[in-house]
Specification:
globular
Length: about 100
């Protein structure tokens, strides 16, 4: 059985500790079981490590539903944060170019 056609989710403009739980609930509600979905971080402007935790939690939720996520428009600072925390490969991200 092939995965459902691709759809895109979008991170909010701000994801810090205060917003992370709400954002996770909203984004989880958009996951489709068995689907290949992309997640755009193009709107993300203000964030802390909670946004990285949100990415990991959302990916875990997608995989639990036999889905697959692809991260798009990841800000360079977020890529650097993922590299510092050692989760680049878990998220399927490439090292930022300098």
């Amino acid at each position: 059985m092939s995965p459902v056609s691709s759809t895109q989710l979008t991170f909010p403009e701000r994801v810090q500790h205060e917003e992370a739980r709400f954002a996770l609930t909203a984004l989880r509600g958009q996951l489709q079981a068995g689907a290949k979905q992309s997640v755009s971080l193009a709107q993300l402007k203000t964030f802390d490590s909670s946004a990285l935790a949100l990415m990991l939690a959302l990916q875990r939720s997608a995989r639990a539903q036999s889905g697959e996520l692809t991260w798009m428009d990841v800000p360079p600072l977020m890529q650097s944060l993922a590299q510092v925390y050692g989760v680049m490969s878990l998220l399927g991200l490439e090292a930022p170019s300098h």
